[in-house]
UniProtKB/TrEMBL annotation:
Subunit structure of this chain's protein: Monomer.
Gene Ontology terms, MF aspect: 8-oxo-7,8-dihydroguanine DNA N-glycosylase activity; class I DNA-(apurinic or apyrimidinic site) endonuclease activity; damaged DNA binding; zinc ion binding
InterPro entries attached to this UniProt entry: FPG_cat, FPG_Glyclase, FPG_N, H2TH_FPG, Ribosomal_uS13-like_H2TH, Znf_DNA_glyclase/AP_lyase
Organism encoding this protein: Luteitalea pratensis
Gene3D superfamilies per record: 1.10.8.50, MutM-like, N-terminal
Gene responsible for this protein: mutM
Pfam family, one: H2TH
Annotated EC: 3.2.2.23, 4.2.99.18
NCBIfam families (UniProt xref): fpg (TIGR00577), PRK01103.1 (NF002211)
Name the record gives this protein: Formamidopyrimidine-DNA glycosylase
Swiss-Prot/TrEMBL catalytic activity: 2'-deoxyribonucleotide-(2'-deoxyribose 5'-phosphate)-2'-deoxyribonucleotide-DNA = a 3'-end 2'-deoxyribonucleotide-(2,3-dehydro-2,3-deoxyribose 5'-phosphate)-DNA + a 5'-end 5'-phospho-2'-deoxyribonucleoside-DNA + H(+); Hydrolysis of DNA containing ring-opened 7-methylguanine residues, releasing 2,6-diamino-4-hydroxy-5-(N-methyl)formamidopyrimidine
Family per record: Belongs to the FPG family.
């Protein structure tokens, strides 16, 4: 399932192809993804210009010159491909693949194709009012890579939470879109136990303790590293499941029984379940 780094890498892929460009032609190869496309979706997009290609949590958010906003979610298996139009129109263009559901022909000369074998993706076209009332986007906490997400903000959000720290990190009101894998990774990097109470990273008055600073730095580090790796991957398959290669990129996630990667630590990675999600941690160096 695409996590925040994959969605950010997708945003970076789409930005040069779509920002400032007009939708010349929109092809829908079916009537729905997870749910039906908005009414007159292709007609409402055609002729409008993309003002920006932004991301909020795991949503791609594209404000348009029409005043509406295109909101897209990759779901379980969604992926975008970008091709130049000359290339797409060249001598022997490949036939559309079975799961290419949406094609945007942009005035930039790029053809943007959305592929989604499992069809849990979402495309929505929202008015300003609908956007500001969006059930998921409203109430999201700060973006983990934004300057607003700092030790003070995290401590403030955790100060009154009596839940385990890992559970707090998955709460979208605390930090937006971090996801299970990167919460596990960041806690290990910061040397903090997933099961310690969330409020322990703040003082009684809600000020950040050094643990909050370590955790914020670790979250930014694991995400930045993952985004850089994603952006460097030239071949990204819509069908990609976690392969052996892919799991090699994690410190502790999915590494039950392996030696802890912390230098000088003799611990072993253990798996547990918190709030219905798998957690991987070392009981020696994570306190
Ligand atoms: Zn350890």
């Amino acid at each position: 399932m695409p996590e925040l780094p994959e969605v950010e890498a997708t945003r970076q892929l789409l930005e040069p192809a779509m920002r400032g460009a007009r939708f010349d032609r929109v092809l829908l190869r079916r009537a729905d993804l997870r749910r039906a496309f908005p009414p007159d979706f292709a007609a409402r997009l055609t002729g409008t210009t993309v003002d920006a290609v932004t991301r909020r949590a795991k949503y791609l958010v594209l404000p348009l010159s029409s005043g509406e906003t295109l909101v897209m979610h990759l779901g379980m298996s969604g992926d975008f491909g970008v091709q130049s139009r000359e290339r797409a129109a060249s001598a022997a263009p490949p036939p559309p693949r079975a799961h290419d559901h949406v094609v945007f022909e942009m005035s930039s000369g790029c053809v943007v194709t959305f592929t989604d074998p499992r069809r849990f993706g979402v495309m929505d076209l929202l008015t300003r009012e609908a956007l500001s009332a969006h059930e998921t986007l409203v109430g999201l906490g700060p973006e983990p890579l934004s300057p607003e997400f700092d030790a003070a903000a995290l401590a403030r959000a955790c100060a009154r939470r009596r839940v385990p720290l890992k559970v707090a990190l998955l709460d979208q009101r605390v930090v937006a879109g971090l996801g299970n894998i990167y919460a596990v990774e960041a806690l290990h990097l910061a040397g903090l136990s997933p099961s310690r109470r969330a409020s322990t990273i703040a003082t009684p008055t809600g000020k950040p303790r050094p643990t909050a600073m370590r955790l914020v730095a670790a979250i930014k580090k694991v995400l930045t590293t993952a985004i850089a790796r994603q952006s460097n991957t030239t071949y990204r398959s819509a069908f990609a499941e976690a392969t052996a290669d892919e799991s090699a990129r994690f410190r502790v996630y999915d590494r039950e029984g392996e030696a802890c990667p912390t230098r000088g630590c003799a611990g072993v990675i253990r798996r547990s379940v918190q709030g219905g999600r798998s957690t991987f941690a070392c009981r020696i160096c994570q306190r």
